[in-house]
Amino acid sequence: MTVNKPELLAPAGDFECLNTAINFGADAIYCGGDFMQMRAEKVGFTREDLKKAAEIKHKARKKLYVTVNCFAKNSEIEPLKEYAKYLYEIGADAAIVSDIGVLDVIKKTTPDMPVHISTQANCTNYQSANVYYNLGASRIVLARELSIEDIAVLRANTPKELELEAFVHGAMCMSYSGRCLISSFLNNRSGNRGECTQPCRWSYYLVEKKRPDEYFEIIEENQATAVLSSKDLNSITFLDKLADAGITSFKIEGRMKTPFYVATAVNAYRRAIDGGDVAELNDELNCISHRPYSSGFYFGELINNTFNDGLYHSDAKFIGVVKSCENGVAKIEMRNAFFVGDILEIVSPHLLKKSIKVEKIFNSEGEETDRATLVQEIVSVPVTEDLYAGDFLRRRETCN
Q: Which is it for strands 249-252 and 355-357: parallel, antiparallel or unpaired?
Protein backbone atom coordinates (compact mmCIF):
# COMPACT_ATOMS: atom_id res chain seq x y z
CA MET A 1 0.00 0.00 0.00
CA THR A 2 1.17 3.54 -0.71
CA VAL A 3 2.37 5.82 2.10
CA ASN A 4 -0.78 7.92 1.78
CA LYS A 5 -3.56 5.40 2.34
CA PRO A 6 -6.55 5.72 0.02
CA GLU A 7 -9.81 6.88 1.54
CA LEU A 8 -12.31 4.16 2.46
CA LEU A 9 -15.74 5.25 1.22
CA ALA A 10 -18.83 3.42 2.48
CA PRO A 11 -22.52 3.48 1.52
CA ALA A 12 -25.41 4.51 3.75
CA GLY A 13 -29.10 4.15 2.96
CA ASP A 14 -30.21 5.13 6.46
CA PHE A 15 -28.86 6.36 9.80
CA GLU A 16 -28.10 2.86 11.09
CA CYS A 17 -25.84 2.22 8.10
CA LEU A 18 -24.31 5.70 8.43
CA ASN A 19 -23.38 5.18 12.07
CA THR A 20 -22.22 1.63 11.38
CA ALA A 21 -19.90 2.80 8.60
CA ILE A 22 -18.39 5.42 10.89
CA ASN A 23 -18.04 2.98 13.78
CA PHE A 24 -16.25 0.40 11.63
CA GLY A 25 -13.70 2.81 10.22
CA ALA A 26 -14.93 4.40 7.00
CA ASP A 27 -13.23 7.70 6.19
CA ALA A 28 -16.20 8.96 4.23
CA ILE A 29 -19.83 8.05 3.57
CA TYR A 30 -21.93 8.54 0.48
CA CYS A 31 -25.71 8.74 0.57
CA GLY A 32 -28.67 10.09 -1.36
CA GLY A 33 -31.17 12.78 -0.48
CA ASP A 34 -34.71 13.28 -1.72
CA PHE A 35 -33.75 14.70 -5.12
CA MET A 36 -32.06 13.12 -8.17
CA GLN A 37 -30.29 10.47 -6.11
CA MET A 38 -30.67 7.48 -8.47
CA ARG A 39 -32.30 5.22 -5.91
CA ALA A 40 -35.90 4.43 -5.09
CA GLU A 41 -37.54 7.10 -2.93
CA LYS A 42 -37.48 4.96 0.22
CA VAL A 43 -33.67 4.68 0.04
CA GLY A 44 -32.26 8.02 1.05
CA PHE A 45 -32.40 10.88 3.49
CA THR A 46 -34.86 13.73 3.77
CA ARG A 47 -33.36 17.19 3.77
CA GLU A 48 -33.62 17.38 7.53
CA ASP A 49 -32.00 13.94 7.70
CA LEU A 50 -29.15 15.13 5.49
CA LYS A 51 -28.55 18.02 7.85
CA LYS A 52 -28.40 15.61 10.78
CA ALA A 53 -26.11 13.28 8.82
CA ALA A 54 -23.77 16.19 8.12
CA GLU A 55 -23.68 16.99 11.84
CA ILE A 56 -22.86 13.36 12.66
CA LYS A 57 -20.02 13.20 10.14
CA HIS A 58 -18.65 16.53 11.37
CA LYS A 59 -18.47 15.30 14.97
CA ALA A 60 -16.82 12.08 13.80
CA ARG A 61 -14.39 14.03 11.57
CA LYS A 62 -15.52 12.10 8.51
CA LYS A 63 -16.73 13.26 5.11
CA LEU A 64 -20.20 13.09 3.56
CA TYR A 65 -20.81 12.93 -0.18
CA VAL A 66 -24.35 13.30 -1.50
CA THR A 67 -25.45 11.67 -4.76
CA VAL A 68 -27.21 13.88 -7.31
CA ASN A 69 -26.45 11.46 -10.09
CA CYS A 70 -29.60 11.07 -12.18
CA PHE A 71 -29.56 12.43 -15.70
CA ALA A 72 -31.72 15.50 -15.20
CA LYS A 73 -35.08 16.34 -16.69
CA ASN A 74 -35.87 19.89 -17.81
CA SER A 75 -38.18 20.29 -14.84
CA GLU A 76 -35.35 19.51 -12.41
CA ILE A 77 -32.89 22.23 -13.41
CA GLU A 78 -34.36 25.10 -11.39
CA PRO A 79 -35.00 23.00 -8.23
CA LEU A 80 -31.41 21.76 -8.55
CA LYS A 81 -30.07 25.25 -7.88
CA GLU A 82 -31.91 25.46 -4.56
CA TYR A 83 -30.85 21.91 -3.66
CA ALA A 84 -27.18 22.65 -4.38
CA LYS A 85 -27.32 25.66 -2.08
CA TYR A 86 -28.87 23.52 0.64
CA LEU A 87 -26.17 20.85 0.38
CA TYR A 88 -23.48 23.49 0.59
CA GLU A 89 -25.10 25.21 3.58
CA ILE A 90 -25.40 22.02 5.64
CA GLY A 91 -21.75 21.15 5.03
CA ALA A 92 -21.86 18.29 2.53
CA ASP A 93 -18.29 17.63 1.41
CA ALA A 94 -19.18 16.93 -2.23
CA ALA A 95 -22.00 16.31 -4.67
CA ILE A 96 -21.73 13.24 -6.90
CA VAL A 97 -23.11 13.90 -10.40
CA SER A 98 -23.42 12.17 -13.77
CA ASP A 99 -24.99 14.85 -15.95
CA ILE A 100 -22.62 17.48 -17.37
CA GLY A 101 -25.43 20.02 -17.12
CA VAL A 102 -25.88 19.23 -13.43
CA LEU A 103 -22.15 19.73 -12.95
CA ASP A 104 -22.41 23.14 -14.61
CA VAL A 105 -25.42 24.20 -12.52
CA ILE A 106 -23.78 23.22 -9.23
CA LYS A 107 -20.46 24.92 -10.03
CA LYS A 108 -22.24 28.13 -11.04
CA THR A 109 -24.64 28.06 -8.08
CA THR A 110 -22.16 26.97 -5.41
CA PRO A 111 -18.64 27.46 -6.81
CA ASP A 112 -16.97 26.19 -3.63
CA MET A 113 -18.94 22.92 -3.53
CA PRO A 114 -16.64 20.05 -4.60
CA VAL A 115 -18.17 17.92 -7.34
CA HIS A 116 -17.36 14.27 -8.01
CA ILE A 117 -18.17 12.70 -11.37
CA SER A 118 -20.21 9.53 -10.82
CA THR A 119 -19.37 6.16 -12.32
CA GLN A 120 -22.68 6.62 -14.18
CA ALA A 121 -20.84 9.11 -16.40
CA ASN A 122 -18.71 6.18 -17.64
CA CYS A 123 -15.37 8.00 -17.62
CA THR A 124 -12.95 5.57 -19.28
CA ASN A 125 -10.07 7.76 -20.47
CA TYR A 126 -7.83 10.65 -19.46
CA GLN A 127 -9.21 12.99 -22.12
CA SER A 128 -12.70 12.82 -20.59
CA ALA A 129 -11.25 13.09 -17.09
CA ASN A 130 -9.37 16.25 -18.03
CA VAL A 131 -12.50 17.79 -19.55
CA TYR A 132 -14.41 17.17 -16.32
CA TYR A 133 -11.51 18.62 -14.33
CA ASN A 134 -11.48 21.76 -16.48
CA LEU A 135 -15.22 22.11 -15.88
CA GLY A 136 -14.66 22.10 -12.13
CA ALA A 137 -14.77 18.46 -11.01
CA SER A 138 -12.41 17.54 -8.18
CA ARG A 139 -12.80 13.76 -8.42
CA ILE A 140 -13.68 11.11 -11.00
CA VAL A 141 -15.43 7.91 -9.94
CA LEU A 142 -13.97 5.73 -12.67
CA ALA A 143 -16.00 3.43 -14.88
CA ARG A 144 -15.94 -0.14 -13.61
CA GLU A 145 -14.76 -1.32 -17.03
CA LEU A 146 -11.19 -0.05 -16.56
CA SER A 147 -8.23 -2.31 -15.90
CA ILE A 148 -5.49 -1.46 -13.42
CA GLU A 149 -3.25 -0.71 -16.40
CA ASP A 150 -5.90 1.65 -17.80
CA ILE A 151 -6.10 3.43 -14.45
CA ALA A 152 -2.33 3.92 -14.31
CA VAL A 153 -2.32 5.47 -17.79
CA LEU A 154 -5.23 7.73 -16.87
CA ARG A 155 -3.47 8.80 -13.67
CA ALA A 156 -0.26 9.63 -15.54
CA ASN A 157 -2.14 11.91 -17.92
CA THR A 158 -4.31 13.89 -15.51
CA PRO A 159 -3.51 16.63 -12.96
CA LYS A 160 -2.36 15.28 -9.62
CA GLU A 161 -5.02 17.46 -7.95
CA LEU A 162 -7.75 15.42 -9.66
CA GLU A 163 -8.73 12.58 -7.31
CA LEU A 164 -9.55 9.13 -8.69
CA GLU A 165 -12.10 6.88 -7.02
CA ALA A 166 -12.82 3.24 -7.85
CA PHE A 167 -15.31 0.65 -6.71
CA VAL A 168 -13.62 -2.20 -4.87
CA HIS A 169 -16.58 -4.25 -3.69
CA GLY A 170 -20.20 -5.04 -4.48
CA ALA A 171 -22.70 -5.63 -7.26
CA MET A 172 -21.88 -4.87 -10.88
CA CYS A 173 -24.16 -4.15 -13.82
CA MET A 174 -23.85 -6.16 -17.04
CA SER A 175 -23.94 -2.90 -19.02
CA TYR A 176 -22.10 0.37 -18.60
CA SER A 177 -23.35 1.65 -15.25
CA GLY A 178 -26.67 3.42 -15.56
CA ARG A 179 -27.00 2.81 -19.30
CA CYS A 180 -29.08 -0.39 -19.22
CA LEU A 181 -32.63 -0.02 -20.54
CA ILE A 182 -33.89 -3.58 -19.95
CA SER A 183 -35.84 -2.63 -16.82
CA SER A 184 -37.44 0.31 -18.61
CA PHE A 185 -38.28 -1.87 -21.62
CA LEU A 186 -39.76 -4.80 -19.69
CA ASN A 187 -41.30 -3.06 -16.67
CA ASN A 188 -41.36 0.66 -17.41
CA ARG A 189 -39.05 1.14 -14.41
CA SER A 190 -36.01 3.32 -15.08
CA GLY A 191 -32.58 2.37 -13.78
CA ASN A 192 -31.54 6.01 -14.14
CA ARG A 193 -34.27 7.01 -11.68
CA GLY A 194 -33.31 4.34 -9.15
CA GLU A 195 -36.17 1.99 -10.02
CA CYS A 196 -34.31 -0.88 -11.71
CA THR A 197 -36.15 -4.20 -11.28
CA GLN A 198 -32.91 -6.10 -12.08
CA PRO A 199 -34.20 -8.27 -14.95
CA CYS A 200 -30.54 -9.12 -15.57
CA ARG A 201 -30.79 -11.32 -12.47
CA TRP A 202 -33.79 -13.30 -13.75
CA SER A 203 -33.49 -16.84 -15.11
CA TYR A 204 -33.85 -17.18 -18.88
CA TYR A 205 -34.33 -19.86 -21.53
CA LEU A 206 -33.48 -19.77 -25.22
CA VAL A 207 -36.58 -20.06 -27.45
CA GLU A 208 -36.47 -20.57 -31.23
CA LYS A 209 -39.11 -18.49 -33.06
CA LYS A 210 -40.71 -21.40 -34.94
CA ARG A 211 -40.78 -23.63 -31.85
CA PRO A 212 -42.42 -21.36 -29.24
CA ASP A 213 -43.28 -24.27 -26.97
CA GLU A 214 -39.73 -25.62 -26.80
CA TYR A 215 -37.38 -24.16 -24.21
CA PHE A 216 -33.64 -24.72 -24.54
CA GLU A 217 -31.39 -24.43 -21.53
CA ILE A 218 -28.25 -22.44 -22.21
CA ILE A 219 -26.54 -23.73 -19.09
CA GLU A 220 -28.01 -26.66 -17.20
CA GLU A 221 -28.20 -25.27 -13.68
CA ASN A 222 -31.29 -24.76 -11.52
CA GLN A 223 -33.45 -25.53 -14.61
CA ALA A 224 -32.48 -22.20 -16.20
CA THR A 225 -29.67 -19.68 -16.33
CA ALA A 226 -29.29 -16.00 -15.60
CA VAL A 227 -27.39 -15.18 -18.79
CA LEU A 228 -27.06 -11.47 -17.97
CA SER A 229 -26.27 -11.64 -14.26
CA SER A 230 -22.79 -10.39 -13.40
CA LYS A 231 -20.78 -11.70 -10.50
CA ASP A 232 -20.03 -9.37 -7.60
CA LEU A 233 -16.76 -7.47 -7.36
CA ASN A 234 -14.21 -8.30 -4.66
CA SER A 235 -10.87 -6.46 -4.75
CA ILE A 236 -9.55 -7.07 -1.24
CA THR A 237 -6.60 -9.20 -2.42
CA PHE A 238 -5.18 -6.51 -4.74
CA LEU A 239 -5.87 -3.17 -3.08
CA ASP A 240 -2.16 -2.40 -3.19
CA LYS A 241 -2.18 -2.62 -6.99
CA LEU A 242 -5.12 -0.22 -7.20
CA ALA A 243 -3.39 2.20 -4.84
CA ASP A 244 -0.15 2.01 -6.80
CA ALA A 245 -2.08 2.74 -10.00
CA GLY A 246 -3.23 6.01 -8.47
CA ILE A 247 -6.58 5.40 -6.81
CA THR A 248 -7.41 8.02 -4.17
CA SER A 249 -10.56 6.44 -2.77
CA PHE A 250 -11.78 2.84 -2.41
CA LYS A 251 -15.56 2.69 -2.75
CA ILE A 252 -17.87 -0.03 -1.43
CA GLU A 253 -21.16 -0.44 -3.32
CA GLY A 254 -24.40 -0.85 -1.40
CA ARG A 255 -26.72 2.05 -0.55
CA MET A 256 -29.54 -0.49 -0.43
CA LYS A 257 -27.63 -3.02 1.68
CA THR A 258 -28.12 -3.88 5.35
CA PRO A 259 -26.13 -2.55 8.33
CA PHE A 260 -24.63 -6.04 8.72
CA TYR A 261 -23.33 -5.88 5.14
CA VAL A 262 -21.90 -2.41 5.76
CA ALA A 263 -20.27 -3.49 9.03
CA THR A 264 -18.65 -6.60 7.57
CA ALA A 265 -17.45 -5.01 4.34
CA VAL A 266 -16.12 -1.83 5.95
CA ASN A 267 -14.44 -3.82 8.72
CA ALA A 268 -12.69 -6.10 6.23
CA TYR A 269 -11.50 -3.33 3.91
CA ARG A 270 -10.47 -1.06 6.79
CA ARG A 271 -8.28 -3.80 8.21
CA ALA A 272 -6.87 -4.65 4.78
CA ILE A 273 -5.94 -1.02 4.09
CA ASP A 274 -4.26 -0.91 7.50
CA GLY A 275 -2.16 -4.00 6.75
CA GLY A 276 -4.30 -6.88 8.00
CA ASP A 277 -4.13 -10.50 6.83
CA VAL A 278 -5.82 -10.36 3.42
CA ALA A 279 -6.62 -14.09 3.24
CA GLU A 280 -8.32 -13.95 6.62
CA LEU A 281 -10.22 -10.80 5.68
CA ASN A 282 -11.31 -12.27 2.36
CA ASP A 283 -13.01 -15.02 4.34
CA GLU A 284 -14.93 -12.31 6.21
CA LEU A 285 -16.44 -11.15 2.93
CA ASN A 286 -17.91 -14.62 2.36
CA CYS A 287 -20.05 -14.05 5.45
CA ILE A 288 -22.23 -11.38 3.84
CA SER A 289 -24.91 -12.02 1.25
CA HIS A 290 -23.24 -11.97 -2.16
CA ARG A 291 -23.20 -13.49 -5.60
CA PRO A 292 -20.04 -15.38 -6.58
CA TYR A 293 -17.09 -12.99 -6.53
CA SER A 294 -14.80 -11.89 -9.33
CA SER A 295 -12.06 -9.32 -9.92
CA GLY A 296 -14.19 -7.54 -12.51
CA PHE A 297 -12.22 -5.87 -15.31
CA TYR A 298 -9.21 -4.95 -13.18
CA PHE A 299 -6.93 -7.53 -14.77
CA GLY A 300 -8.19 -6.99 -18.31
CA GLU A 301 -11.12 -8.49 -20.17
CA LEU A 302 -13.42 -10.76 -18.22
CA ILE A 303 -12.39 -14.41 -18.55
CA ASN A 304 -14.96 -17.00 -17.49
CA ASN A 305 -15.99 -14.91 -14.52
CA THR A 306 -18.78 -12.77 -15.85
CA PHE A 307 -22.07 -14.50 -15.26
CA ASN A 308 -23.61 -16.65 -12.56
CA ASP A 309 -26.93 -18.10 -11.44
CA GLY A 310 -28.08 -14.74 -10.08
CA LEU A 311 -28.53 -16.17 -6.58
CA TYR A 312 -27.10 -14.81 -3.34
CA HIS A 313 -24.83 -16.89 -1.12
CA SER A 314 -23.50 -16.43 2.40
CA ASP A 315 -21.40 -18.43 4.86
CA ALA A 316 -23.09 -16.83 7.87
CA LYS A 317 -26.41 -15.52 9.14
CA PHE A 318 -26.81 -12.13 10.77
CA ILE A 319 -28.07 -12.76 14.32
CA GLY A 320 -28.16 -9.42 16.09
CA VAL A 321 -26.69 -6.08 17.11
CA VAL A 322 -25.08 -5.44 20.49
CA LYS A 323 -26.83 -2.50 22.18
CA SER A 324 -24.72 -2.54 25.34
CA CYS A 325 -22.48 -4.78 27.43
CA GLU A 326 -22.09 -4.30 31.17
CA ASN A 327 -20.93 -6.59 33.97
CA GLY A 328 -20.52 -9.52 31.60
CA VAL A 329 -24.04 -9.31 30.16
CA ALA A 330 -24.69 -8.21 26.58
CA LYS A 331 -28.01 -6.76 25.48
CA ILE A 332 -28.64 -7.90 21.93
CA GLU A 333 -31.26 -6.65 19.50
CA MET A 334 -31.97 -9.83 17.57
CA ARG A 335 -32.56 -10.06 13.82
CA ASN A 336 -32.59 -13.84 13.32
CA ALA A 337 -33.36 -16.65 15.73
CA PHE A 338 -30.62 -18.12 17.89
CA PHE A 339 -30.52 -20.75 20.61
CA VAL A 340 -28.70 -21.83 23.75
CA GLY A 341 -25.62 -23.72 22.61
CA ASP A 342 -25.05 -21.61 19.50
CA ILE A 343 -21.57 -20.29 18.73
CA LEU A 344 -21.91 -16.65 17.65
CA GLU A 345 -19.03 -14.88 15.94
CA ILE A 346 -18.35 -11.24 16.76
CA VAL A 347 -18.06 -8.63 14.01
CA SER A 348 -16.38 -5.68 15.66
CA PRO A 349 -13.89 -2.90 14.91
CA HIS A 350 -12.27 -3.84 18.23
CA LEU A 351 -12.04 -7.63 17.85
CA LEU A 352 -11.30 -10.11 15.07
CA LYS A 353 -11.89 -13.85 15.01
CA LYS A 354 -13.60 -13.87 18.40
CA SER A 355 -16.80 -15.70 19.30
CA ILE A 356 -19.11 -16.42 22.20
CA LYS A 357 -21.00 -19.55 23.17
CA VAL A 358 -24.59 -18.87 24.18
CA GLU A 359 -25.00 -20.47 27.61
CA LYS A 360 -28.13 -18.60 28.69
CA ILE A 361 -30.73 -16.29 27.15
CA PHE A 362 -33.03 -13.93 29.04
CA ASN A 363 -35.93 -12.37 27.15
CA SER A 364 -37.04 -8.73 27.42
CA GLU A 365 -39.10 -9.62 30.50
CA GLY A 366 -36.05 -11.06 32.25
CA GLU A 367 -37.25 -14.64 31.92
CA GLU A 368 -34.74 -17.34 31.06
CA THR A 369 -35.41 -19.14 27.78
CA ASP A 370 -33.60 -21.54 25.49
CA ARG A 371 -34.15 -19.50 22.35
CA ALA A 372 -34.61 -15.99 20.97
CA THR A 373 -37.06 -15.86 18.08
CA LEU A 374 -38.83 -12.49 18.21
CA VAL A 375 -37.22 -10.14 15.68
CA GLN A 376 -35.95 -6.88 17.21
CA GLU A 377 -36.57 -8.07 20.77
CA ILE A 378 -33.71 -7.03 23.03
CA VAL A 379 -32.48 -10.07 24.92
CA SER A 380 -29.73 -10.46 27.51
CA VAL A 381 -26.91 -12.97 27.13
CA PRO A 382 -24.04 -13.55 29.60
CA VAL A 383 -20.73 -13.30 27.71
CA THR A 384 -17.07 -13.94 28.40
CA GLU A 385 -15.73 -11.51 25.76
CA ASP A 386 -15.84 -7.73 26.02
CA LEU A 387 -18.47 -6.63 23.53
CA TYR A 388 -19.20 -3.05 22.51
CA ALA A 389 -22.33 -1.20 21.48
CA GLY A 390 -22.55 -1.41 17.70
CA ASP A 391 -20.88 -4.81 17.40
CA PHE A 392 -22.68 -7.41 15.27
CA LEU A 393 -23.16 -11.12 15.88
CA ARG A 394 -23.42 -13.83 13.24
CA ARG A 395 -23.69 -17.61 13.13
CA ARG A 396 -21.76 -19.68 10.61
CA GLU A 397 -24.00 -21.57 8.21
CA THR A 398 -23.49 -24.02 5.39
CA CYS A 399 -23.08 -21.82 2.32
CA ASN A 400 -26.52 -21.36 0.79
A: unpaired
